[in-house]
Amino acid sequence: MPLQATALLLAAVCVCRVQEGVAFPNGSVAFSCGSMMPVHPPYTPSSSSPPVTLSTSSASYRPGGVITVTVEVVKNSSTEFQGFLLQARSRKGLALLWPVGKFTNISTTLFTALHCNNMENSTVSQASGVKKKKVQLTWEASINSNYGDIYFSATLVQDYTTFWVQLNSSTLRLDSSVNSAAGVFSSSALLFINLLSLSAYC
Hints:
This protein has two helices and eleven strands. It is an alpha+beta fold and about 200 residues long. A hairpin with an 8-residue loop joins strand 6 (about 110-115) and strand 7 (about 125). The radius of gyration is 24 Å and the shape is globular.
């Protein structure tokens, strides 16, 4: 085989191996936690309108509460996706680049849980390269949540050459009324106890 043909064949094999290794069909993409950017050289994120919707079960959340998050291909579309990366992020200052809260009830046959920023189950990706039209996950806020308003962000991979980065949901407002109500109840109970104590001395 001519030397030039041999070199071209080796180059093609190398490119295939790089694509196979970088695509990570099992979802082990922890190094993308911050940027949410797949490493698929030489390709860059698609500028076309993403054929998916990112929706949540509520427009607000409470400390310790759960939210159902759905990533789904738009109706009447034949598009399917192989990979995704999903996390919740705060709109407060420096928290913008890191996930908040955690995902629960994760099916290990369908999804891979990632511990981004040393936070357990703070991000989820696919467990295999099986094509899909919809994924649905449950997210839970910490009981002492101080995230403020949040949103969910997803990266979607249709194939090695076509992907969309940081597709964001609508903002979810922090509903702290439960904590406020608890505080009012505690104050009222304390006042009642104090009145009882005073009446005992009368």
